[in-house]
Specification:
alpha+beta, Aminopeptidase, 2 domains, ten-stranded mixed β-sheet, 33% helix
Length: 249
């Protein structure tokens, strides 16, 4: 990976950590231990973006003790910019299983005019009841319980985008501008509105917000097996720039 892409990936990973904050956090030798009592894997795994310890085995043991105190599984998120560089191998040797693979996608922010659509697009600095219902509709029970509490702790820069039809929110999206990058998060479309351009309209609205905020790149992260979503994002101009996975004890 080029230095430019590596720098972009570091910016994205740091922004992703800030953009979906866990309910409990603690720094352990530079790593960020995260716990959210269920729901999102990312909010219940260690963000290993920096390491300041001298004994990696001792650091891992401290992480394990923290999760054990919450009676929660021990997870690390491992990306190309995780530190130290040999962390994935250390965890593998300790018996940690390789979890699901994910992709990080990005695209340059481009000027994008609003296009004619049968859907009304609204943006707000807080989630409406309709936005929340659309977003939660496709989540598992554990994620539906935790997600509203995580949303309550999002940075003030969060923008909630809604696609409206006949006054009803049929699709949701969220973006948080963080320096040079802006996220695409919480994308969901109600079943009755799928394949009607709602998600693309949400993405266009998010890109306009990112351009107005002076961001240079949009990014998103999704499951490597989520073929339909990845195809949609590719059509919009996103490209896969990296992959990451979890390690679970």
């Amino acid at each position: 990976m080029s230095d430019e892409r590596l720098g972009l990936l570091r910016d994205i990973e740091r922004a992703a950590v800030a953009g979906w904050p866990a309910l409990e956090t603690e720094f352990v030798d530079g790593w960020l231990w995260r716990h959210a009592s269920g729901g999102s894997t990312r909010a219940n795994s260690v963000a290993a973006l920096a390491y300041s310890g001298a004994d990696i085995e001792a650091s891992v043991a401290r992480i394990e003790a923290l999760y054990r105190s919450r009676r929660a599984p021990v997870r690390f998120t491992i990306s190309e910019v995780s530190e130290p560089a040999g962390l994935d191998g250390v965890l593998a040797r300790r018996g940690y299983a390789h979890g699901d693979d994910h992709v990080t996608m990005a695209k340059p922010v481009a000027a994008r005019r609003a296009t004619a659509t049968k859907l009304a697009i609204e943006t707000s600095d807080r989630p409406s009841a309709g936005w929340l219902a659309a977003y939660l509709s496709g989540l598992s029970a554990s994620r539906r319980d935790v997600a509203p509490r995580i949303l309550a702790g999002l940075p003030r820069a969060a923008i909630y985008a809604s696609a409206m039809r006949a006054g009803e929110v049929v699709a949701s999206g969220l973006s948080i501008a963080d320096g040079a990058v802006a996220s695409v998060q919480c994308m969901a479309t109600l079943p009755a509105a799928q394949r009607q351009g709602a998600a693309t309209a949400i993405l266009a609205a998010i890109e306009r917000q990112a351009a107005a905020a002076g961001c240079r790149a949009l990014y998103l992260q999704t499951g490597a097996g989520n073929d339909a979503a990845i195809a949609l994002y590719r059509r919009f101009g996103f490209a896969v720039i990296s992959r990451y996975h979890t390690r679970r004890q």
